[in-house]
Amino acid sequence: MPTSHSSDSERGSGVGEGGAEPPPRLLNRWGIGAPAEVTALGSGRGTRSWRVDASGGACFLKEYEQPDRRRVLFRHGITAALDAAGLPVLAPVPARGGRTLVTAAGRGYVLYPWVGGRGRGGLELTFGQCEALGELLGRLHAALDELTAPVQQSMLVPTPRAADAAAAVEEMLRDVPDGDGGTDFDALTVRRLRERRDLLAEFAGHQPPDIEVSTWGHLHGSFHAGHLRYGGSGNVTAVLGWDGLTTGPVAGEVVRSAARLFACEDERGLDLDRVQAFVRGHRSAFPLDAGQIQSAVHREWWERLCDVAPLRHRYLGEDGTAERGPASLVPWWSAQLERTLDAFAAPYTAVPADVLEESPAYG
């Protein structure tokens, strides 16, 4: 069976609430033929989804418990236009009456074509594929800029405070047994929390400014490996996850995406060679400038430093890992802050193409 259309966050066990069938006769609202099989894919926050195998082909059905009609239809208009522009984005399938959001029993339903392909981690990609992926994100940004009205930059971009994060860490430390009364995992938890507390104290003076002048626009909102599907030739067949469509600094999405795509799960931190290839590709389709990229790197590092949600999840078992990935990247990034600032911005300096392509990873 090909890889599911749904994002990783939408997949579940298919048991319980996620396994419930969609309302009877609902699928008759679309001209896809009689459904031969409906398979639950899982549930997310306020959503459920199914694979529908019908005589007209396979489809992906998504349910919204409380759909914001205006937002959903705006998103549908954008994704349909991106699809029409030849980008690997799936447009919703209109129902018989032409609607893309169908309501039944107070819930909203959207049908999409099923997409095959497979997921690939960013570290699996060659440098050439990393550059092509960055170019794809740049093409999406350029298309979004053309398809939507200009976005007014916020006068204030709030910055997390190190003191608030440090206080949260202290509160967490009080909840973890220390010394003879704890387990080995408790000792590891205390060590990691103290490490973060020390980093917050060490870098308290490195807070980025609240106000930054940068290029703002509509953003995908969650461009990472879980929302990308690849064909056999290594090309991206679909960019999923458009529920996260939002607005903000374009450079911020470039940096966030690179940090999620090319982070190692150990002390190696970020693969900065792949990061540079990705940023270089983005620059070819939607050029910014080195200053905006470096400001975005500074802010992304700082927000990760002050984000204790991954620590709560990893060591205290609480729900929610946030969108920034594992906490293990923070110590490496803090130690390599100047290096990452330079590396992310390097594609905006002149680098001979023949030097880059000498690497066997390009291919």
DSSP helix fraction? 25-40%
Spatial shape? globular
- Structural category: alpha+beta
Q: How many DSSP helices?
A: 11
Write the layout of secondary structure elements.
Elements: E1 35-44, E2 47-54, E3 57-64, H1 69-84, E4 102-104, E5 107-113, H2 127-147, H3 162-174, H4 184-202, E6 216-219, E7 228-230, E8 236-239, E9 246-249, H5 250-261, H6 272-285, H7 290-306, H8 309-316, H9 329-335, H10 337-345, H11 353-356
Antiparallel strand pairs: 1-2, 2-3, 3-5, 4-5, 6-9, 7-8
Helix pairs in contact: 2-6, 3-4, 5-6, 5-7, 6-10, 7-10
Walk me through the structure.
The structure is a single chain. Residues 6-18 and 359-363 have low confidence and may be disordered. Helices cover 39% and strands 14% of the residues. It is globular, with a radius of gyration of 22 Å. Strand 7 and strand 8 form a beta hairpin. It is of the alpha+beta class and 363 residues long. The protein contains eleven helices and nine strands. It has helices spanning 69-84, 127-147, 162-174, 184-202, 250-261, 272-285, 290-306, 309-316, 329-335, 337-345, 353-356, and strands at residues 35-44, 47-54, 57-64, 102-104, 107-113, 216-219, 228-230, 236-239, 246-249. The relative contact order is 0.12. The strands form three sheets. A five-stranded antiparallel beta sheet has the order 1-2-3-5-4, with no helix packed on it. Strands 6-9 form a two-stranded antiparallel sheet. Strands 7-8 form a two-stranded antiparallel sheet. The longest helix has 21 residues, at 127-147.
